[in-house]
Amino acid sequence: MKTALVAGGAGFIGSFLCELLLEKGYKVFAIDNLVTGKRENIEDLLKNRNFNWIEHDITAPLHMNVSCDEIYNLASPASPVDFEKMPDFILKTSAVGHLNLLNWAKIHSAKILLASTSEVYGDPLEHPQNESYYGNVNCVGIRGCYDEGKRFAEALSMAYKRRYGVNIRIARIFNTYGPRMRPEDGRVIPNFFTQSLNGQPLTIYGDGKQTRSLCYVTDLVQGLFSLMQSEIETPTNVGNPDEYTILDIGKNVSLACGVEFRTKSFPLPENDPKQRRPDISKAQRELEWQPKVSLREGLASTLEFFKRSQNK
Ligand code: NAD
Ligand code: UDP
Fold this sequence. Notes:
Blueprint: E1 3-7, H1 12-23, E2 27-32, E3 51-55, E4 70-73, H2 80-85, H3 87-108, E5 111-117, H4 144-164, E6 168-173, E7 176-177, H5 188-197, E8 202-205, E9 211-213, E10 215-216, H6 217-229, E11 236-238, E12 243-245, H7 246-257, E13 263-266, H8 281-286, H9 295-311
This protein binds nicotinamide-adenine-dinucleotide and uridine-5'-diphosphate (UDP).
The site of nicotinamide-adenine-dinucleotide (NAD) has 28 residues, from α1, α3 and β5.
């Protein structure tokens, strides 16, 4: 039986990844400090005897005497709202936290995958974004803590591969959505669902013509798993290339909720990327992976989750 350690395992994406790994027959250790994750995300998994839960902050060294084949590092707050609340902690998690996990991977000869982000491309001047693009990041802007933290973590992964031969993977994840996103998270999908279900207008930042490409969470975790099983030790985009304006995303959420599309304008946050779409030809070619869930299907499943959250 293979063993996987999932840092950030009680988070939105992390909990879906733990589920997938258990389905694939892994013994799973989920590590999380619950800064943005929730115990209820893994409540059902706790009944599975192959699932182990450890409350731990990865910025502290990890002392665990288990052998492990694969480490997935998903631990990091990821919402722009968090960038304002805890910028130093985000940087520390990407730097010290990832360093601790890399050291652990080195000692245990485990493969280690970093959940990096499309944010390493910043406000991109190339479109769509291919892995060869170096990006356009403002390191001292409000998003700098997250973008530079992930860029540093990528550089650290490459350093450990080159110097110590650690077996690394780098997934550049593009906007992902689905059930278990925190309603108060501040990202566009939780905001639009919460607002629609409460009869409020949708908050549109700027003119709403900026674009994002949304990947449903079950597609995303399949991509992460495939990347881990591959031999690819260079950054790889994982996301859905279907690109929408924020206004179009709002219209689709309103439609899914069966409410009128009404909006209220707010200023565009600093350094908010104007366009984002992954070039996933590398993942398609080398992982034989591509997303399957349409926006309509994904929004329908996500709606059920937000309805249940409202009734709690
Ligand atoms: P999330 O906030 O739901 O999950 C992150 C988890 O990490 C949380 O459970 C949190 O409590 C935990 N965590 C944070 N810092 C920690 C620390 N120091 N020690 C232990 N646990 C810690 O966010 P998510 O959307 O599921 O994102 C998961 C990962 O994927 C993040 O690394 C994020 O940067 C990356 N990512 C997500 C997206 C997206 O659209 N959701 C896009 C690009 C990259
Ligand atoms: N956005 C918006 N209204 C909201 C939340 C977000 O118009 O209530 C916009 C935001 O300005 C950005 C896009 O939606 O252009 C995606 O924002 P999110 O925070 O989800 O992710 P990110 O900016 O990190 O891609």
